[in-house]
Amino acid sequence: QVQLVESGGGLVQAGGSLRLSCAASASIFEINFLGWYRAAPGKQRELVAVITSSGRTTYADSVKGRFTISRGNVRNTVYLQMTSLKPEDTGVYYCNERTTSGYDYWGRGTQVTVSS
Predict the structure, then answer these.
(1) Which pLDDT tens digit goes with each residue over 17-53?
(2) Residue 60 CB coordination number (10 Å)
(3) In the 8-state DSSP scheme, what is residue 108?
(4) Looking at residue 43, what DSSP letter applies?
């Protein structure tokens, strides 16, 4: 079973930056989307950013201009550069990869905590 593994989370002060990484334990083919989601305490998981196989990106309004999603040179690698972090960005961040057939792969998440 292919697994996605996130890394790069941690504790940071408001205004700081973090870079999240996601890699797959084995190659996943026919990827349509790679994305990042987050779950704030007591809230449902929400989309943060997604990048298509052609490189088109979409961001949640709350992170536009502050976060940047990108794909790595290694297959199934995706990054999330987060700047100007706010306390409301606190949550567990999950990596997602969706195939062209609609199958979703998820990581177990990495905790991001932004202190005020």
Answers:
(1) 999 999 998 888 888 899 999 999 899 999 999 999 8
(2) 15
(3) -
(4) S
Q: Token pair 């593994």 is at which residue? A: 5
Distance, CA of 37 to CA of 55 (rounded, Å):
18
**Which residue in the block uniquely carries the two structure tokens 């790069």?**
8
Contact status, residue 19 vs residue 80, Cβ threshold 8 Å: yes
Q: CA 103 to CA 3: how far, in whole Å?
A: 13
For residue 75, the model assigns a pLDDT of: 86
Beta strands in 14-103 (DSSP E): 18-24, 31-39, 46-52, 57-59, 67-71, 78-82, 91-99
pLDDT for 29:
84
The size of the chain, in residues, is 116
